[in-house]
Amino acid sequence: MVSRTVRKNQLLLLAVLLIARSALGFPSTTDVHDLMLNDDYDYDTDEPSAPSPQTKPTGVANAYLPLVNRTLTKTGILGEDVVLKCDENITEANVILWFQDSKMITSDRSVVLPNFSLNPKNFDLTILKASPQSAGTYSCQILPQNVFVSTKVVLGDHSLDVITPESSRSGQNSLQRLALLWLLSACLALAHQLKH
To answer: Where does the secretion signal sit in this chain (predicted)?
Structure first.
């Protein structure tokens, strides 16, 4: 017969393992969503029996297709200037275009929309006195390479209102670390009880 103490320890170990599996074993839905956004696969469900529309390459890849070099997030405060960076590797031979969604903001060194300024040395775009309409996705297109650097601009009333995605992810990581620490402590306590 199994003693009552051993049975309690087994149940405790089982509970610890179940909690650890649920806390550490599966990525959060936002992590899975971020991973799906960062690849080129089409996740729409198609008929499994439908033939694959694969084609053989016919030569050189199309040079006109845009490449997303990076996607960034920039936080700012309403009423203050917000500076957006394009790329560190811009040369004099490059032509730089800035867009907000599909609206062109700059054409090389000329600003074509109000409420923006452009640094002619490094092509940083400044949103002057950011308003709620200033929030959104900005893209810097570098020609002739046709590279895009996209920046999502998030604005808040005060500095505490604007929480960056990185800080929310670090909160998730902290929770996972805490769960792992708790799991290790519980295992050590259980091992100590089993020895005595």
So the answer is: 1-25
Decide: 151 and 74 in contact? Cβ < 8 Å: yes
**Nearest-CA neighbor of 127 among 150, 107, 111, 110?**
111
Q: What is the pTM of this model?
A: 0.49
The CA-atom distances, in angstroms, between 3 and each of 7, 16, 40, 190 are 6, 20, 57, 15
CA distances, 73 to each of 35, 39, 145, 177 (Å): 16, 18, 23, 25
Whole-number Cα distances in Å, 16 to 24, 72, 80, 173, 193: 12, 38, 49, 19, 15
Express each pLDDT in 75-113 by its tens digit: 999 999 999 998 778 888 889 999 998 899 998 788 999
Question: Tokens for 185?
Answer: 């402590």
